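pls design
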């Protein structure tokens, strides 16, 4: 029960059953690509070379704020060409939401007819902008990265959210106001980190059912906020549900 794609990938690698396509919403595209690259290098699945100079990796990026059909045609050639080193091949599509309709249609064929040992990562700042036919063919993840100085503060907020049921009304109001002081993407990040914290607690807690219920509530609230539902109303719903 985790949204951390690196942990998930490691599990799939261990089981020798790696999915062929992932859609990842993130606030740091380059860091995500490097983390995925490092994971596959660590597991000896691709050569230990720089991500930009590795023949086992293809990176698609927008030009003039657009990813057109020609770029996906180029990607298709990469996926169907046999690896010289007989290793896994990886492709990244950065800012995947910037594909036009022709590119989407061509990518759909790539996803529907995946090549053996080829793994794709569609990376976006907002997965709600990706068309449903593409989304349905990918494993979906959210991977947000924090600046180091925010980690301690956010950890405290996460702990307080988990214990919302025991907080006074005044403490809930204060917590909500603190959260409202953050940007939308940071609030989503805090909720995501709270889910991760709950996931860690589940393995050591006797009250598994309660924590699992909190996890579901947080997941629902995160989706509401991502869908542009009023953030204050979403947080009100969060604390009402957590205190039931």
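designed seq:
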């Amino acid at each position: 029960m985790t949204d951390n794609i690196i942990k998930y990938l490691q599990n799939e690698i261990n089981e020798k059953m790696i999915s062929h396509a992932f859609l990842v919403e993130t606030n740091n595209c380059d860091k995500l690509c490097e983390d995925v690259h490092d994971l596959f290098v660590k597991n000896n699945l691709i050569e230990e070379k720089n991500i930009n100079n590795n023949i086992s990796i293809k990176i698609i990026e927008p030009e003039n704020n657009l990813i057109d059909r020609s770029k996906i045609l180029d990607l298709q050639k990469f996926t169907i060409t046999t690896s010289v080193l007989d290793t896994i091949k990886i492709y990244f599509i950065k800012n995947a939401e910037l594909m036009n309709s022709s590119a989407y249609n061509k990518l759909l064929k790539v996803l529907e007819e995946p090549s053996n040992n080829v793994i794709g990562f569609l990376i976006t700042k907002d997965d709600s902008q990706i068309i449903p036919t593409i989304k349905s063919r990918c494993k979906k993840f959210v991977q947000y990265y924090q600046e180091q100085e925010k980690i301690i503060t956010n950890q405290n907020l996460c702990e307080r959210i988990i214990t919302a049921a025991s907080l006074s009304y005044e403490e809930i109001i204060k917590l909500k106001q603190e959260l409202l002081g953050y940007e939308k993407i940071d609030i989503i990040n805090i909720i995501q980190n709270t889910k991760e914290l709950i996931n860690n607690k589940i393995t050591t807690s006797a009250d598994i059912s309660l924590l699992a219920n909190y996890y579901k509530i947080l997941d629902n609230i995160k989706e509401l906020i991502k869908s542009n539902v009023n953030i204050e109303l979403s947080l009100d719903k969060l604390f009402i549900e957590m205190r039931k």
